[in-house]
Amino acid sequence: MSTGTIPRGSLAQVTSAEDAALARATARRQARGRLVAHAVLIIGVLIFALPIWLTLVGSSHDVSTVGRGDVPLWFGSHAVENYLSALLTGGQSRVARGVPVWVMLWNSMIVAICIAAGKIAISLLSAYAVVFFSFPGRMVFFWLIFITLMLPVEVRIIPTFEVMVNLGLVNTMPGLIIPLIASATATLLFRQFFLTIPDEFVEAAKIDGAGPLRFFRDVVIPLSVTNIAALFVILFIYGWNQYLWPLLIVTDKDLETVVVGMTKMIGGGDAQNEWNIIMATAVLAMLPPVAVVILMQRWFVKGLTETEK
Amino acid sequence: MATLTLSDIRKSFGATQVLHGIDLDVAEGEMIVVVGASGCGKSTLLRIVAGLETPTSGAVRIGGRDVTALEPADRDIAMVFQNYALYPHMTVFENMAYGLKIRGIAMPEIRRRVADAAEMLEIGALLDRKPRQLSGGQRQRVAMGRAIVREPKLFLFDEPLSNLDAKLRVQMRAEIRRLQKRLGVTSLFVTHDQVEAMTLGDRLVVMHRGRAAQVASPMEVWGQPADTYVAGFIGSPAMNFLSATLAGNGRAAELKAGPTLPFADGTRPGGDGAKITIGVRPEHVLQAETPDALPLAVELVEPLGSETVIHGRLPGGEALVARLPLPASRIGPTLPVLLPPEAWHVFDGEGRRLPAGG
């Protein structure tokens, strides 16, 4: 019956020359559609990837090449020395400041992990309280938490700074971390997830004799694992990318995070900016979030899309 | 193994009263089925016995001990939930063992009990699986197993068969009954399915709007329903209700459909002319070519194979359903039927059963 090749994806069974022509037209249209879609995607990828590519390439040239204002498109031969210089000294012009990038990375790592872990712990507990217990003012507390969603760090930064000063936490690691730990978003996400846990589990646990903490540990936490993982990814990146608060609260160079430290490398003044070193630092600063996303991607997607019960 | 006594259990949610004083005495090892339409309060009653709800007033006694103020875990009960409520992240073994572990029972004893229950339920091969790897029937068994290993004084079943398909439901129904008899544990089983109720229960509690309309054995509920609600709820197709008035000094009923027929079992109290309702089960309607037969105008014929269900109207416009051992092809536009007085259920104007005599 077939007249010529029937293109994949055509639904019609070809019974005549006319239908064959129709099928070919459909196939052409589909091919065109695919072409357009791919073109759009490729342009999108280029727009996103080009700056990263330039950074990556720039970090492998010597200081004068990048400094001249040329934008090389292919790798140079100074990659190893640039990265070593950044990691170990923070670049020549910063010898006076003396903060090697590995210290900044270490600080950022501690801050990001503590913020992510702290946020998850606090919001798990508060969501658990709001969902599974009935106590006077439960909804009031929930709305209080909810309303703080509308207040980003920037809005409450002056009172928060004041509190930190009074507590003597300026220029300390806890001062850097604690104000960023409370999280309405995470509380809200966990609340929504907890609401999907069937009441029967709570009741079965009551009959089994499991108290609230036991139920939390044995049932709620294991059921939330994928959500916790997904949130960890988001919150780690959130913590890693913090800029304004670390800039304010920490003046001690040894506590500088990489995002802040990197911008401080771009100085005014007489010294020429070592763009190659700064770019190497930028690449280094990108690596941990990328690693977290890649390592936890499977759980991340699962946690945001799947409700397994 | 224990008795269960409910005295005057009342429950209100805000302004709505859902239970209006339930009294019930359950003997040791008895299987009581609480049956009723949705919203009748049957699940609330079960949850009060379980301790998941607190009654507004009244007392729950298990084995003579007043447990009204106790936590569910302290009542020595086990419950099987409608959706089984198996913890999805635990294996079958962990699910069954969880309650025992919390109780602080030693691991060898837990293993022994779980193994025994698993053998009894034929789920020994599934102990390492997660609930999502099980079929509906297997989950049901695991939920049963979780209840059995507790060795409780009382089993509570909250519509445990309603998530299964029809065939499996019949099979599990028989299995639950067999198991309950074998273990001899006092049980309370809630369902909306009258067939389940009839086949499972030693006694039924038919609930209607927060009251126990009748508490009796299945055959008594079927044979002597306490009111028109129970009469209509138990039996399929449902009982026919025909309006009538008392006549002949309480010796007969004058049907709206025409004839005046004498009661088969004696007189009824109340003056002539009092409104009564005559109930006749579809399977008791007879087909007869006699002069006193009533012509039923046939509207719908449902063949069931060996029998045929006929929906029609009597003279006077009242609907009547008959279930006759006739092939559907033999049924014409009108069917002469008899309503034998021996099969009547007589109810008074309020719908309460009106017994003979008096």
* CATH architecture classification name of the largest domain in chain A: Orthogonal Bundle
In angstroms, what separates the terminal alpha carbons of chain B? 43 Å
Q: Which spans of chain A have pLDDT < 50 for at least 5 consecutive residues?
A: none
> How many individual β-strands of chain B?
20
CATH class of the largest domain in chain A: Mainly Alpha
The most extensive contact between chains is: A-B, 17 and 23 residues
Shape of chain B: elongated
Structural class of chain A: mainly alpha
Strand content of chain B: 25-35%
Total discrete domains of chain B: 2
Gyration radius over CA of chain B: 24 Å
Count of beta strands of chain A = 0
- Discrete helix count of chain A: 13
CATH 2nd-level architecture of the largest domain in chain B: 3-Layer(aba) Sandwich
Distance between the termini of chain A: 50 Å
Structure, described:
The complex is a heterodimer of chains A (309) and B (358). Helices cover 68% and strands 0% of the residues of chain A. Chain A is flat, with a radius of gyration of 27 Å. Chain A has helices at 17-58, 63-67, 79-89, 101-132, 138-147, 157-166, 173-177, 184-195, 199-208, 212-240, 244-249, 258-265, 275-305. Chain A contains 13 helices and no strands. Chain A has two domains: 17-89, no CATH class; 97-305, MetI-like (MetI-like fold, Orthogonal Bundle). Chain A is mainly α and 309 residues long. With 358 residues, chain B is an alpha+beta fold. Chain B folds into two domains: 4-233, P-loop containing nucleotide triphosphate hydrolases (Rossmann fold), CATH 3.40.50.300; 240-347, OB fold (Dihydrolipoamide Acetyltransferase, E2P). Chain B contains eight helices and 20 strands. In chain B, the strands form four sheets. Chain B has a six-stranded mixed beta sheet, with helices on both faces. In chain B, strands 13-12-11-14-20 form a five-stranded antiparallel beta sheet. In chain B, helix 2 (92-102) crosses helix 3, helix 2 packs parallel to helix 4 and helix 3 crosses helix 4. The longest helix of chain B has 18 residues, at 166-183. The radius of gyration of chain B is 24 Å and the shape is elongated. The relative contact order of chain B is 0.12. Classes of the chains: A mainly alpha (309), B alpha+beta (358). The interface between A and B is medium-sized, with 17 and 23 residues.
